[in-house]
Design a protein that fits this description.
alpha+beta; Nucleoside Triphosphate Pyrophosphohydrolase; 21% helix
């Protein structure tokens, strides 16, 4: 992994351990299959000052879909996107004004199927804590970051058994909510966050 100058040695070691637990980030066009459409999101982790923080955005209330919901930056994989990774970086640049050359991509989580008919590839990347964010008002109402340590604290999470809807059926599964955050994290974003946290190593784990 090429280490940028904004990454200190301890964080670089932690990032290497995290990358080892992830799938390789896609570099080829995505095939969703089963009548699904391909989408990608970036799971942005801000590092550099203090402990790592995970960054989220809130969709505008005026949006036709996902109005007011907490999300990761991302969206549909376009025909001219080279891969899901490229799509996640492009969407992050369009929505948050973060140049696609800035995130340090570590890998990807397993695809997630959303009720909207999308097969979503979550791409995990690091951002410098001082990164400049310029949200697009059409797609982002606000954004916030939550310390990773807080998200990992079981006292901050509410889990209940509920119905997770797919495109053609529904299954009973744990549903995760983080309610002690600037906005409630739940739904597909909560599912992706849960999967991400399952892969996060301890700060002392450098294997």
């Amino acid at each position: 992994m090429d280490v940028p100058d904004w990454l200190d040695d301890e964080t670089a070691a932690w990032a290497t351990a995290l990358a080892a637990r992830l799938h390789p980030a896609p570099t080829a066009p995505v095939i969703a299959g089963h009548g699904l459409r391909s989408a990608a999101v970036l799971v942005p982790v801000r590092v550099g000052i203090g402990l790592p923080e995970v960054m989220f955005l809130v969709r505008p209330q005026a949006m036709k879909t996902h109005a007011g919901q907490v999300a990761f930056p991302g969206g549909r994989v376009d025909a001219d996107d080279a891969s899901a990774t490229a799509a996640a970086l492009r969407e992050t640049e369009e929505e948050l004004g973060i140049l696609r050359t800035i995130p340090l991509v570590l890998g990807a989580l397993p695809m997630v199927t959303a009720p909207s008919g999308y097969s979503i590839t979550p791409v995990v990347a690091l951002l410098p804590s001082r990164v400049t964010v310029t949200p697009s008002p059409a797609e982002v109402d606000s954004h916030f970051s939550v310390p990773l340590e807080l998200l990992q604290d079981p006292r901050q999470r509410r889990t209940m058994l509920g119905t997770r809807r797919g495109t053609t059926d529904a299954t009973t599964a744990p549903l995760h909510f983080w309610v002690h955050t600037p906005a409630v994290i739940w739904g597909v974003t909560g599912h992706i966050l849960d999967r991400f946290l399952d892969n996060v190593p301890a700060r002392s784990d450098r294997r």
